[in-house]
Amino acid sequence: MSKADRIFIDMCQDILENGYSSIGEKVRPVWTDTGEPAHTLKKFGVVNRYDLSEEFPILTLRPTRLDKAVDELLWIWQKKSNNVKDLNSRIWDAWADENGSIGKAYGYQLGIKHKYKEGEFDQVDRVLYDLKHNKYSRRIIVNMYNHADLHEMNLYPCAYSVTFNVTGNRLNAILNQRSQDILVANNWNVCQYAVLVHMFAQVSDLEPGELVHVIADAHIYDRHIPIIEELIKRPVYDAPRFEINKDIKDFYQFKPEDFKLIDYKAGVQIKNIPVAV
């Protein structure tokens, strides 16, 4: 069994057995087909830890499309885009306007330049600078939750900040997420930020260390409960081997095809998952 499977199963069992129900409360999300309120079971303050030196944290209970997850990651962190026309999937279409923009969210925030004593950098370039020139700094932080621009975002950032920390020669990261749809997004985000740690580590002559995922509101939607109950009873397999193109030394040269999974075995994909917006 991959360790990511064990972490996911334990988290889901805890939410199902001990989660707090939003039934009877006024909630923002609705189901796209009926417009009815989308209620959840939730746990507050879930913390999951993944040692990237041991294995790549992808689920084997069902397949996670690493290529598409990486494409979205690069859209935000490398292209610093807020337009779905720069994305090779339709996953953001529900939040895009007629021009394809999701407002001043995600990649837009990472592309804003800020003044530092060393000069002007956007947040991604500041991380790259610090990992090269000041790798033991305790101030290597990216934050996309800009209150001044929230009113111009079509969706407030869910995964909104990352703190990077180097211990010895290992690059570690804490991903902070205000809210997460566990069935739809959990392993997707875990894989994305595991790849991000591998990318930053490689171009900074570091080794990937630990990814700590902190979720303020970890929830399972009511329509997802039977799907989750079936999913966590499935057979599990060993984690695949993760390969990154070792020739890439410039963060901005990475492409989705530079990341591969070797011997990835997973259960049947779950299709037509109802989505709340």
Key features of this structure:
single chain; 277 residues; alpha+beta; Thymidylate Synthase, Chain A; two-stranded antiparallel ribbon; 6 helices; 10 strands
Q: Write the element-wise H/E pattern from the N-terminal end onward.
A: HEEHHEEHEEEHEHEE
Find the count of extended strands (DSSP E, 2+ residues): 10
- Structurally, the number of domains stands at 1
Which spans have pLDDT < 50 for at least 5 consecutive residues?
none
* Gyration radius over CA: 19 Å
Helix content: 25-40%
The proportion of strand residues reads 15-25%
Q: Average the pLDDT over all residues and give the rounded result.
A: 97
Per CATH, which architecture?
2-Layer Sandwich
Distance between the termini: 33 Å
Largest beta sheet: strand ordering: 1-2-8-7-6-5
CATH secondary-structure class: Alpha Beta
CATH level-four homologous superfamily name: Thymidylate synthase/dCMP hydroxymethylase domain
The coarse overall form would be globular
- What is the makeup of the main sheet? 6 strands, mixed
How many helix segments? 6
Alpha-beta classification: alpha+beta
Look up the CATH topology: Thymidylate Synthase, Chain A
What does this 3D model show about the protein?
It is a single chain. The chain has a single domain, classed as 2-Layer Sandwich (Thymidylate Synthase, Chain A), CATH 3.30.572. It is built from 6 helices and 10 strands; from the N terminus they run αββααββαβββαβαββ. It has helices spanning 3-18, 66-77, 107-110, 123-133, 182-203, 225-231, and strands at 20-21, 40-51, 114-116, 119-121, 140-143, 159-167, 170-181, 207-221, 241-244, 259-262. The strands form 3 sheets. A 6-stranded mixed β-sheet has the order 1-2-8-7-6-5, covered by helices on one side. The chain is globular, with a radius of gyration of 19 Å.
